[in-house]
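Contributing new records

If you add data, match the layout below exactly. Sequence lines come first and carry their own label; structure lines follow with theirs. Keep one chain per record. Anything else will be rejected by the validation script.
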Amino acid sequence: MSDASPARPQKFTVPRFLAAKEKNQKITMLTAYDYLSAKILDDAGLDCLLVGDTLGMVVQGKSTTLPVTVDEMIYHGEMVCRAVQRALVIVDMPFMSFHISPAQALENAGRILKETGADAVKLEGGVNQAKTIEAIAAADIPVMAHLGLKPQSVRAIGSMGKIQRDEDQLIADALAAERAGAFGILLEMITAPIARKITETVTVPTIGIGSGSGCDGQVLVTPDMLGMNADFHPRFLKKYANFAADMKTAVQTYASEVREGTFPDASHSHS
């Protein structure tokens, strides 16, 4: 009988991410915030896991992503990275962690990679953050840009659901991010024709959320696509499960059995 351990899955690296566009292979991505969920997602064969600052909303219950700190991103990112064998793990740089200067951004990006074990960071911005992207990329820290709807700019935009339609600005942002060294670009809430045009214009992969099928890959927030937030129904979201209802039913059944004295029974007790 062989005692050889199972082969470790081949890591989805930044070079493999870039090659996927050349091979016309769609890239799969979901968000992850904890060890157990990340392990399940990684075992399912996803290409990328994004430790998003959306944790401020879907984990902490806040109304925006703005209060999330670098320390919180590191805390959640380290848990995710400990679970992952295959997926490329990208950690968001939260609000005000890269806005002051490229030097500040580089220091925080370095902390995130060193203390989490992640493969890359992501930050919001294009033309306005080109120098910052360049500084991070120059230190050999893979960095992804985030364009279109930028949740960290919610106070200026006025709405978390505003569709982005300024084609000239969006293309300029994408080209600036690519030239600065971004290895990928996340496109959020951009009209499908513009997102497709951006994807055809840049040589790095694009990942869409609410931006149509013309992107090189797609990302969704995992609790949203699993139906854990019963009241969240944006047009771009497809719910692949109904965890909120299933969880409620399971808890109600458990509580009923405890009250009736049918749990635990002999099969769930030690003799």
